[in-house]
Amino acid sequence: MSRRFFELSDDVSFPRRWHLSFPRSRQGREFEDPIQFNRGHPVDVEGPLQVSVEHAGSPLDFSEAGAKVPIVHVKVASIFAEQAPEDVQLIPVNVEGQPDQYLVLVATRLIRCIDEKASQIRLWTHADGLPEMAGTYASVRDMRIAKTQVGKAKVFRPEGWEVALIVSGEIREALERKGATGARFEEV
C-alpha cells in the first residue's frame, strides 16, 4: 500500500477558537527573521518563547500563530517526538494565560517533491515586477507530491512552497486518535 501524505494546517472554522500572535524571544523581542520557523531546517533560538493570545477563545491542540508558525499542545508534540524525531524540532513556548505546556513545531526537513504536472501551480514572472522571484512558485493549489522523493520522512516542508507543512498518514492517524483539536488535513 502506498504511503499517504497530508498538508496539516490550522482549522480556522473551529468554533470560538483562539488566535495567537507571532512567537517572540524569551525576552519578548521580535525575531529578525520572522519566518525562520517555516523554512524546513532547525532554528537556533533559545526557549521558552513567548506567545500572546490576540483573540480569546478555546485553546487548541494545534494552532498556527502569526506567519503560520505551528504551536502545539504537549500531547500533540509527543506524537511528533515519538513518530518523527529526526524530522522535527520542538521549542518550548509560554502561551499567555495557559498553564498547559505548548511548543513551537519546526519541520527540519525541506524536500523537493512538488509534482508540478499534477498540481495547479503559478510561477512568478518578470512581468509581475519582482524579478528576484521569477521562476519560483507564486501559488500552489491542489498540491500533489512525488512520494518517491520523500524517502522515510514523516514531517517536512516542500521546497519552494515552505508555507505548507506536510505530515504522513501515520502522523495524521495518531493526531486523530488523540483527538487533537484545531488540525485540518488535506491529502497531497
Automatic annotation (TrEMBL):
- Organism of origin is Stigmatella ashevillensis
Domain Immunity MXAN-0049 protein residues, every copy: 98-188
Q: What's the domain of life for this entry?
A: Bacteria
Quote the protein name from its UniProt record: Immunity MXAN-0049 protein domain-containing protein
